Amino acid sequence: MLDMKMFREFVDILRADHDKREMPYDDIEDVIRLDEEWRQTRYDVDQLRKKRNEAARGIAQAKKSGDKIAADTILSEVATLGTEIDALTEKADSCLIERDKIRMRVPNVMHESVPIGEDDQKNTLHRLHGEKSNFDFDPKTHNDLIELNGWVDLPRGAKVTGSRFYFLQGDLARLDMALQNYSANFLIERGYRLVQPPLMMNRDAYEGVTDLADFETVMYGIEPDKYYLIATSEHPLTAMRMDEIIEPSELPIKMVGVSPCFRREVGAHGLSDRGIWRVHQFTKIEQIIICKPEDSWGHHEELLENATALWDSLGLHYRVVNICTGDMGTVAAKKYDLEAWLPGAGSYKEVVSCSNCTDYQANRLRMRYRTSDGNEAVHTLNSTAVATSRALVAIIEQNQNEDGSVRIPDVLIPFMGGQREIKSVN
What we know:
The protein is α+β, with helices and mostly antiparallel strands. It is built from 14 helices and 18 strands. The strands form five sheets. Strands 1-11-12-13-16-10-9-4 form an eight-stranded mixed beta sheet. It has a three-stranded antiparallel beta sheet with strand order 5-7-6. A three-stranded mixed beta sheet has the order 8-14-15, with no helix packed on it. Strand 12 (about 335-340) and strand 13 (about 345-355) form a beta hairpin. The longest helix has about 40 residues, at about 25-65. The chain is elongated, with a radius of gyration of 28 Å. Mean pLDDT is about 95; it is low at about 265-270.
């Protein structure tokens, strides 16, 4: 969430940001109103406590001098102060809770370079990478290829769990593991510490990293323990330092997370109905940076460069787009997406999301770093390196042969025991 300083001193910036998002100011005005009410109520409480303390000294002095009438008079004048203080304190606490509940809904302030547009059709092209594959045959979709080769068993996955779960098998399962190892090593060599996070989080930690009111519908809850299965390792890795004051010598903190991810999302009919493009469980290799505010925009470009270098090394064609205002979520101040070309589907599809969340998550997580002027919120950034199921789809479609086999990207061959193609298990 945004620091209260934004509402108290820079409200024009918030209103201008809401104009870009085509959002009303209601939440902003409610936060300001409740904040003023909270501060006034706290002031009134302080004045009553001051009055009570002065009365206590007056009573003590009167009793010391033997003036019982004066002591009783003062006592009667302040007899209801305790009740008044309790009532006002309760009111102040209520204002604070409601203020911050609404403040959690106010989105981050977007970077000035975010393009203005109502939906994803207004995202702007940032860069193109690689070239489209040339086929002398009609390329198949990944749905057709995995069915042809028996690499994925969706019916039995649905039988033992439910729809959009699957068994990955044979060469494609090996290629998934190769992608995990290669991608993690790629980032380790760039100075990122490998971390395997817990696969469940409690509500307090989850509310620190995302807008649960919006995101909770796609998450799996664990009962009766009130945990959530993680939707991405970004969430536990970012929340890892919640409620901590970080020494500046530790910054920047750079991590690469590897984990299964779980989402109750449902895709549109077509590409997502079959295959492994939009599923409830997948593996993702994620980049995380926690840094000083003045460094975060440089690190945002670093995360993007890491992702593009990794995808370039796989020899795949994709584009980088700058996400517009209407396609931007609550948490990020700016976001790039990498969209891989899927020749079978004849379209670009998102495979990487790269975000600078500035201090938005840190404020929610109460995560700060020590400075000479006091403690300040850090900035948090995240980017997919590889979501393996989607990377497999891109590899399958772009590297397919006419007989249905698929060429393995050169950099992954050592992780496949020298094998150069993935072949049918049928």
